Amino acid sequence: MAFPFLAVRQMPRTHKLALLIGAVALPAVALAIVAALLTLRVARGVEAESARYDQYLSAMVTEAFEQELITQLRDAVVPAEGVARDGGAAPDVVRALASRSRQFEAPHFVPVDDMAGLSVLMVESQMLLYGDDPTGERAHPFAAVVLRGPTGDVVGAGGWWFNPRAFIAANLANVVRNRLSANPRTYGGIESTRHLCVQVFDGEGHEVARVREPGRTPTGRFADMTGPFEGFRVRVAPTDLAPAALASRFVAVQIALIAILAGVLLGATFISVRYIVRQIELVQAKSSFVSNITHELKTPIAVIKLAVETIEMGRFRTDGERDKYLRTIQRESDKLARLVNNILDFARLESGQQALRLGPVDVHDVISTALESFRLRLEDEGFEWRVDCPERVPLLKADALALQHCVLNLLDNAVKYSRERKEVRLIVRQRDGWVSIAVSDRGIGIAAEDQKRIFEKFARVEAGLVHTVKGAGLGLSLVDQIVRAHHGRVEVASTPGEGSIFTLILPQWVEGQDSPRDV
Ligand code: ADP
Question: Is this model's pTM higher than 0.70 or not?
Fold first, then answer.
């Protein structure tokens, strides 16, 4: 089991990040996609179900109209039936029919022999007779119910011509609100679901009547009415407040919310994974810092000890040789001091205790003092160095000691990370109120992807020559922090194999604008 863990540990940072994001965020995104698909499926199911229900209710509306028609006919036909039962003649029946015809026109009695031309519809065990006007005078259909004589035999049908359009317009609200809801077959009654709009259209598509306003996107489903209402069509559609309409409206919101949630999750995972990877790297960097720093401290101490012993025991042949040992002691103790200073400064800056005293500083002084203390090292390592600094440079607004420290760190790196081409340049330029101090070398250079990272604490490029050069990874982090405290910045330009230029850009001193102060 150790193998995969090791393989992950040895992976580059970007791979680790991708792996962690893959392991944590992708399942979350996959779940979000599944949730969105399920929501869509459910919404589509609800929509289909509600469309089927609407269709069913449309059929119910037709049936309820027929029922209403027959009820009204029955109510109106009562006196005529009495006449028929008493054995009255056809004109008496017609007269009786005339007394109760509010919705209907022209009472008509159809003797049993002429009933063959009428269509018959059974509505809840009642017989509804209907057909065209036998005389062809009226465009409206004829509707009637059966009349029985004294012996109980059918003697004919009594009824009226009626206007279906007017009948629908007059009765739709009543049919929908009372008759349908009273009918247990209509799924508990249309009124129990509320929020449903019922519309009736004629053959040309003109609306005849409606109950409630349809929703913004009514379904295009119509049910044809039959029997005496043939030619009319019913549409039952959800209003905007109906559960089906709400479901389809909220599905978009729900999917958007799922997407946002997935996005937030992905972002949070990315940020926390980056943070974790950074922390892991920091821990690794700190542990390599300890081993590096130990080496950094031990080497000069060992060299100094050896040189001191050599001089002490008089193991040198000439004065020149003794001076060489003394130079070694000085060089190594400078190195040691720089390292210790770096560590102390770093600790102070980290804890916010480092105070910079900004005042007018002559850049010539900074450079010459830094070079003075570094000359030995440059000479011993065989470096050729050159300073390119205009004679008149404005004063800097800086802390002279801290700035020297920065230049020394850059020089130290230029020496450490150079191979055969041992050339160091110090270039000073001035522009728009800023003064730049650049240290360039012809050393190993830095890959573009590492150029930002090297300014982080403990960061080192673990490849090529750098691998063999020991260091604490604190120098550039310190330089960066110090220069920032000066309200300046550090820039790096480097090509691997060609060399690097580190440039400190600092504000120039403006006379009278500011007095020396601590920051
Ligand atoms: P250290 O030198 O102690 O490792 P620094 O913070 O000074 O720490 O530098 C960080 C890293 O930046 C170095 O480990 C090295 O990889 C890279 N670096 C710094 N200066 C140079 C340079 N002049 N040329 C090439 N690489 C450099």
Answer: no
